[in-house]
Amino acid sequence: MKISASGLKYLSTGLMVSALWGCGDTNTSTDIDSVQLEGPSDGWTMVWNDEFDGSSIDDTKWTHEVNCAGGGNQEQQCYTADPENSFVADGMLNIVALQAPEGSEKPYTSARMVTKDKGDFKYGRFEMRAKLPSGQGSWPAFWLLPTDNVYGIWPRSGEIDIIESVNLKAANAEGNPEAHVYGTIHYGREWPDNEQSGKAYLLPDGMNPADDFHTYAIEWQEGEIRWYVDDYLYATQRKSEVRYNSKDEAVGLAHKGWFTEFFDQSTGEKQIVWGTEPFDQDFHIILNFAVGGSWPEAVNETGVDASAFNESNPYQIDYVRVYQCDADPDTGAGCETVRPGYDSPDDALVEGKAPVPVPPSDGVARNLTIFNGTANPNWPAWDCCGGSTPEIIDDADKGQVYKFVVGEQPTVNGFITRSAFITDPDGTASPFDASPLLETGSFSFAMKVVTAPSDAGSTWMVKLESNEGATAVEVPITNSAEGVAPTVGQWQTYTFPLNALADGGLDLSAIDVVMVFPAWGTGNGAEYLLDEVTIAQPDGALPSLTVFENDENPNWPMWDCCGGSTPETVSDDADHGIVSQFSIGAQPTVMGYINRTDNGGSGQPFDASALLDGGVVQYDLKVVNGTSDPATPWFFKIESDNAATAVEVNMNTSTEGATPSGEWQTFTFPLQTLADAGLDVSAIDVLMMFPAWGQGEGAVYRVDNVKIYKPGSDSAPGGNVITLFADTVANQWSIWDCCGGSTPTEEADDDAHGTVAQYIIGSQPTVMGFFADDGVYHDASAEVANGMVRFELKVVTPPTDSTSTWLFKIESGDADTAVELPLTDSTEGVAPVTGQWQTFTFPLQTLADAGLDTSAIDVVMVFPAWGTGDGAVYRIDNAIIGTP
Questions:
Q1: Positive or negative, the Cα torsion across 791, 794, 799, 802?
Q2: Which of 202-206, 444-448, 708-712, 733-737 comes out lowest in average pLDDT?
Q3: What region holds the GH16 domain (predicted)?
Q4: Is 57 helix (H, G, I), strand (E, B) or coil?
């Protein structure tokens, strides 16, 4: 339920409906048979209750609120103290909503009862047994509000909805009787930037809460609240858990839960906290029966059914009880009634809406891509005031770009990273700290004006804001480094040095809005496209680290953790030269490279924070002697800040998806993926590559080209390669038959090739090759000058059609661009020979010149010409894209 007149919560219909339906997933398939329902755990002592056994409502426990404020939700009742609206009879409290006399301020009357200053509690088990009223427009609730708004007005000081329902038994979208109940908390910033999270629940076996009595409860302890129906735990919510880096700076959330924003009394500034606040103060109980309002009137059968509000449809409460946990009354912990799955995000645990903390500037220069062909969920495109919705469209020159329009309503357009405007569930408000880029960085974008404003005198403007608009700078587009005005129909690049924007008054530490628009009120009729929107420094300024390449880095010596061996450098083939060699004996161990002084390193860990956007850890590995068990998994492990954080992953989860073999293979791990898994990238000091612990005896393997860098940047120490297939298909790619209905397989070939991909074509025309998962694309744009697509092919059985031509085809961006060539157009210039492995190479530059967008490659195909391949059997191995 929502706030009363005294709580000052007012929401428009649209806001309330979208908010409530965003509470959480609707649970329609709970399996209570898997849980023993035996009631609450031991250790609870009842400290307050009302059994409603008397003849009247106990005014030492309850106060009636009397007002016609509509509950802050445009509800249609006046709350009264009239016995017709609330009374005790037959051991039950009855709250009845009735039609009001003609001429009344509101069309209905009802009751809202509170325990404020008569029953105020922090932590405990709050329980009610009740039968809920039904009907379109009905909205009963059992909930808690803070007794004192310690953290500020609603919802900064919190709200806990133990149970509420709307429109029970009214038809839902499928025509079935509405039966959901909801458990929700409200918190965060002041309305309208408030947040909430929760979960819906359906009783088992088709039961409806309006047909019989059920028990509704929460258990509330320090940092956690759990929701129950008939003692089944269906939802858990928790405080947020903040992750810190080696500098004790908040850099992320291990769990996204609740938060609050309040004014720091010492500074007078707003402060966001991720602790137990606001759910660590006294709250009081509320029982009420609302009629209509923003939420119920907008769903189910919509509106209010007047026939539902009468004496025969009461909100009946058998009892309300409050229990204290004897184990630790100060925290409420120690009496938890839990079940398996109560703390699992796949089951009961609800993700909250806490923003990811932004650390204070650490002086490390990072780049930000707001949009470059792919939407950034943290920075949605935005029309401030004109009512349009910016959209991504295809442009012949740039591919995917954003289109903005301006109509009669004055507006400004651009990109924004404030929570109130982020709708993507993967997005979070992420103000950008550009202060370390002050001297070298710039805000830049590419723009094409499709249609100029109808006002020929309109001036194009650029505006950036910081820290919720606390500072801003607005300048004509001609103030850019290029100094030119837009020309209709032409893509043009505009660059604004950050030092100039700072001189104009912009605080660079928390940029949260960037806008490009015709001057206010002069833009009617304008249509324009934006791409390559970045705040960045030149790539040459990015850091990189070479751990091993042709010789040992004395700051990062080779290392055997526990086996007592001494890794050595040896000479390998012409491509690799001097490499690291590791040998494992009977003693279990892990091996790699270490920076810590105790092991001979420099003790100066590598800060890869600036490389999170596109940076990787990469190395080449070859197995000289395998382990005794060929199935032994191989792992990569990376540690930071003396093992304060670490991430260990199977090597087959690399970008290439490869498994170590007797051939040199590249393994690439994105830094952002490692950071998301919990690694503090600011103090990397150990890199390890090894067979699983205790399973490596006899293994001898070599490692080379070990580096941390951003591929394609000026400071990059090497090339960027994705291995589509080498013994197995790359992670997030598959071996694929487009149209023939077959399933390509992985088969053993000769010693030199090991496991390969095999394709068979039948009578159904088809094309075959490698296919990326939905949303997965390989960006080879930085490799165009020197990169290639290369693969080995062996035709086992040729097509029955002897005139068939073998073709190569590559697609990008969900087939937005594609190039198809005969295999004889490869660098080698040969046709396949049956029974022979042959290499075919196609330079990326050649493919780009033929029209391929190399930034989003998602399909690579090799096949006999369409309709001529019947009977063909062929194999592919060592397929790569990039610069080897």
A1: positive
A2: 708-712
A3: 32-328
A4: coil
- Measured CA to CA, the distance from residue 141 to residue 785 in angstroms comes to 66
Q: Which long-range contacts (CB under 8 A, 24 or more apart) does 11-18 make?
A: 11/72, 11/73, 11/191, 11/192, 11/294, 12/294, 13/74, 13/294, 13/297, 13/298, 15/192, 15/294, 16/73, 16/293, 16/294, 16/295, 16/298, 17/294, 17/295, 17/298, 17/299
Which 3 state secondary structure label does DSSP give 771?
strand
Residue with tokens 């001097």: 578
Question: Which helix (H) or strand (E) segment is 499 a member of?
Answer: helix 498-503
pTM: 0.52
Contact 450, 527 (CB under 8 A): yes
Local structure of 739: helix, strand or coil: coil
What is the chain's alpha carbon radius of gyration, rounded to the nearest angstrom? 32
The predicted pLDDT at position 541 comes to 56
Q: Per the structure block, which two tokens stand in for 319?
A: 């009892």
Is 84 designated active site?
A: no
CB 528, CB 402: distance < 8 Å: no
Residue type, 551: D
827 pLDDT more than 70: yes
If you average pLDDT over residues 749-774, what whole number do you get?
A: 93
What amino acid occupies position 725?
Answer: F
From 75, 159, 219, 474, active-site residue:
159
CA angle centred on 859, ends 856 and 862, rounded to 5°:
140
pLDDT tens digit string along 527-565? 999 999 999 887 555 778 999 998 888 889 999 999 999
Q: Provide DSSP, 454-485.
A: SSTT--EEEEEEETTTTEEEEEEGGGSSS---
- Average pLDDT (27-52) is 68
Residue 503 phi, psi dihedral angles, 5° rounding: -65, -25
- One-character DSSP codes across 633-698: -EEEEEEETTTTEEEEEEGGGSTT-----SS-EEEEEEHHHHHHTT--GGGEEEEEEEEPTT--TT
* Distance, C-alpha 318 to centroid of its chain: 43
Reduced to 3 states (helix: H, G, I; strand: E, B; else coil), residue 51 is coil
- Which of 103, 166, 140 is CA-nearest to residue 304? 166
Q: Which of 309, 22, 70 is nearest to 167 (CA)?
A: 309
Catalytic annotation on 811?
A: no
User: Do 301 and 289 touch, CB atoms closer than 8 A?
Assistant: no
Which two tokens mark 523?
């833009």
Looking only at the bridges linking them, the beta strands covering 108-110 and 77-79 are parallel
Nearest to 379 by CA among 710, 613, 616, 671: 613
Catalytic residue among 164, 178, 224, 656: 164
Q: In angstroms, rounded to a whole number, what is the distance separating the alpha carbons of residues 657 and 671?
A: 16
